[in-house]
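re: the backbone from monday

yeah here it is again, tokenized this time
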């Protein structure tokens, strides 16, 4: 926004004072000065988007605002990603959010955009951030005001995909004297519909499966945060968050063909419930007037997921090998986490900043998997797939950062994080392991402001990625009796080395070059392992069938397991070119970016680390070779057009495209999404109508071929077209200051549940 003024108010006031002292000083004429606040700029280790100065930040919500932020994208309306990164970790006022991902997205969708001051995008986070692998950070900075009072938001939305999915939410904030707080509640239901096409085999054998999955979900969640300012130096806060999800009568129905002949049909019925409760106690003490402070947290997290399923396979031919089979499976998981941390931020009079801290996490997971298999007309325990797995993990972290401005043009930040991990895994009465490792994770950022229009920065960071707790649980999820996913308790942590070079021109155009190296890499998806099991043939009563010489007659069964495991290393280089600019007096706002990448994956999987010998059976696993080199490209084009001079009608036109992209499990087909939205602002009411992925083109299709001719292809069509209409009502004092956001000591663990 351009404003012509005679002189800046501060300077004008100073002139009046000077004229009162010196009558001889006369100012005959002053030229007009044109001021334009920078909406998008590079600042230290982050890109800053000054939302309060942007014309699109009116009458929308925080989630939609983030989608319009440079370097950030969302093609499904449920997740946020930083271009070139795995995921975006959300911070609010430099404090990591204390919610699971779905609750967080709903909170962002119910938070008015008018509450946001700026959004900071940190593509390579420093040592003080609790992130893993190559995750980036989005820090949302809220506006501040000391007004007492209350405000809130009511939101209702109805989405139409394959099924109709309604949801609603409410948030309430208050401030009165030394007390402040906020609370939120969300409820809704949705049913996912997916259609599968699976094929695998080799030049001599072909297996095809076709089917669908209906997964109904009902959930509600919420939480509250209360903050008490003891005095100007001391503050105490408490927060609680919870979420409950129920998914009963989820049905997976698959029909199988072998070499073009109809073989059998598998139906899997599943009931699951998930409960999540987290508590955090926070204390903060300000130690000087420069902004130095001591912060401490004590946290507890309880996570419980109960899942039971009944899998039936019906023969559709008269052969004796593929006869009726069934199994019951129960896969419960309980996670208890206790955590604490202390941070001390020290600012000096010369502008330098020190940050030092220590954190501790203790996690105990209990996974008591039970599986019964139908034999001789009754269900008996399957000892091979019945596992009681107990995993314990202790992580001690120590970190130190130093940041300062070296010259008028050069600034820097250097730091390191030292983590000591001690963990044990015990599959009761079967096997176990112990893993102890230490990691020194350095960090460096250098920023050079070449001129007012040019900025150059370099960042290096090292991180590790620990396996998620559910990935470690040695259980299976079945498509068919011989086609299933297999978790792996023996998977190792991966080491990441991330480098980035960023250039910005006129705070509107940017180029971002990144290079990532991964050692002990684990597949970002699943590795498809094919093989055979040879075992004695049995009759309908379970007795071994023998030949005339008394020797068992052996039969061979093919299998396909999608397994999580380490395979080797990968390298990735990516170049992102972007622009964020408004045209025609802010009538048209554009946020464009193009990402060019080159990736290599090198390694292989030569055995199933989860297999346990069964007497009388012989298992052969075909080696899975990973030797991939791939160029890929993606583009995001977001447009917001103001349709009226009153700034109450807005049109959104967005387009996303991703070319074929290689992964360890195969080649992902090209995807694209074309989205339209229309927004109407009427006082405290906002009405938004949206169509996402108008042409149903953002589904996943994967094709993988091995050097020996074996192949595995997957098409997962999830009916991505989504039409929705939402109504939001904001009430109360909209200038109310938010309660102090608090960092939870167990944030790093939450992302692994």
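seq for it, each position gets an aa:
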């Amino acid at each position: 926004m351009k404003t012509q003024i005679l002189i800046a108010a501060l300077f004008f006031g100073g002139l009046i004072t000077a004229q009162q002292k010196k009558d001889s000083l006369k100012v005959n004429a002053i030229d007009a000065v044109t001021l334009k606040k920078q909406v998008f700029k590079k600042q230290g280790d982050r890109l800053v988007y000054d939302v309060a100065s942007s014309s699109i930040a009116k009458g929308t919500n925080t989630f939609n605002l983030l989608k319009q932020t440079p370097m950030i994208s969302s093609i499904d309306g449920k997740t946020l990603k930083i271009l070139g990164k795995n995921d975006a970790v959300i911070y609010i006022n430099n404090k990591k959010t204390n919610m699971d991902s779905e609750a967080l997205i709903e909170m962002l969708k119910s938070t008015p955009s008018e509450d946001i001051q700026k959004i900071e995008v940190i593509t390579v986070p420093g040592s003080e951030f609790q992130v893993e692998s190559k995750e980036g950070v989005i820090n949302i900075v809220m506006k501040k005001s000391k007004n007492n009072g209350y405000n809130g938001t009511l939101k209702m939305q109805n989405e139409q995909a394959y099924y109709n999915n309604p949801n609603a939410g409410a948030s309430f904030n208050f401030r009165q004297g030394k007390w402040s707080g906020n609370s939120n509640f969300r409820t809704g239901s949705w049913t996912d519909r997916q259609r599968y096409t699976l094929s695998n085999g080799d030049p001599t054998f072909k297996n095809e499966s076709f089917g669908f999955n209906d997964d109904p979900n009902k959930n509600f969640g919420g939480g509250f945060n209360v903050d008490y300012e003891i005095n100007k130096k001391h503050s105490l806060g408490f927060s609680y968050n919870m979420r409950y999800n129920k998914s009963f009568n989820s049905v997976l129905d698959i029909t199988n063909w072998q070499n073009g002949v109809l073989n059998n049909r598998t139906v899997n019925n599943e009931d699951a419930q998930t409960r999540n409760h987290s508590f955090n106690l926070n204390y903060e003490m300000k130690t000087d007037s420069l902004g130095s402070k001591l912060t401490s947290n004590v946290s507890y997290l309880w996570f419980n997921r109960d899942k039971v399923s009944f899998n039936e396979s019906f023969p559709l031919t008269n052969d004796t090998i593929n006869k009726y089979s069934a199994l019951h499976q129960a896969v419960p998981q309980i996670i208890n986490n206790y955590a604490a941390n202390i941070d001390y931020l020290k600012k000096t009079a010369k502008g330098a900043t020190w940050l030092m801290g220590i954190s501790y996490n203790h996690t105990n997971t209990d996974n008591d998997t039970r599986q019964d298999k139908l034999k001789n007309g009754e269900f008996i325990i399957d000892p091979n797939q019945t596992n009681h797995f107990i995993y314990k993990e202790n992580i001690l972290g120590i970190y130190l950062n130093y940041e300062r401005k070296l010259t008028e043009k050069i600034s820097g930040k250097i730091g390191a994080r030292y983590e000591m991990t001690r963990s044990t895994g015990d599959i009761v009465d079967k096997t176990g392991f112990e893993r102890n490792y230490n990691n020194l994770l350095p960090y460096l950022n250098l920023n050079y402001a070449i001129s007012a229009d040019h900025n150059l920065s370099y960042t290096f960071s090292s991180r590790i990625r620990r396996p998620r707790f559910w990935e470690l649980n040695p259980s299976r999820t079945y498509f068919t009796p011989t086609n299933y996913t297999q978790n792996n308790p023996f998977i190792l942590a991966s080491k990441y080395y991330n480098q980035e070079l960023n250039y910005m021109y006129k705070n509107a155009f940017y180029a971002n070059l990144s290079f990532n190296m991964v050692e002990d890499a684990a597949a970002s998806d699943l590795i498809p392992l094919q093989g055979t099991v040879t075992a004695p043939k049995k009759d309908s009563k379970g007795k071994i069938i023998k030949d005339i010489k008394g020797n068992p007659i052996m039969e061979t069964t093919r299998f396909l397991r999608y397994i999580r495991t380490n395979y080797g290393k990968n390298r990735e280089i990516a170049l992102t070119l972007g622009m964020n600019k408004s045209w025609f007096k802010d009538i048209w706002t554009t946020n464009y970016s193009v990402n060019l990448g080159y990736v290599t994956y090198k390694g292989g999987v030569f055995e199933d680390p989860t297999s346990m010998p069964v007497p009388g059976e012989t298992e052969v696993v075909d080696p899975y070779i990973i030797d991939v080199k791939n160029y890929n490209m993606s583009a995001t084009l977001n447009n917001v057009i103001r349709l009226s001079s009153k700034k109450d009608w807005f049109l959104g036109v967005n387009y996303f495209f991703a070319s074929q992209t290689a992964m360890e499990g195969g080649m992902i087909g090209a995807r694209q999404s074309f989205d339209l939205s229309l927004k109407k602002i009427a006082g405290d009411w906002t009405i938004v109508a949206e169509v996402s992925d108008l042409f149903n083109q953002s589904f996943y299709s994967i094709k993988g071929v091995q050097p020996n001719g074996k192949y595995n292809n997957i098409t997962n069509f999830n009916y991505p077209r989504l039409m929705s209409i939402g109504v939001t009502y904001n009430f109360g004092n909209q200038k109310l200051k938010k309660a102090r956001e608090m960092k939870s000591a167990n944030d790093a663990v939450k992302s692994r549940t």
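Residues 1-36, 737-742 have pLDDT under 50 and may be disordered. Helices lie at 9-21, 62-67, 101-110, 469-472, 747-750.
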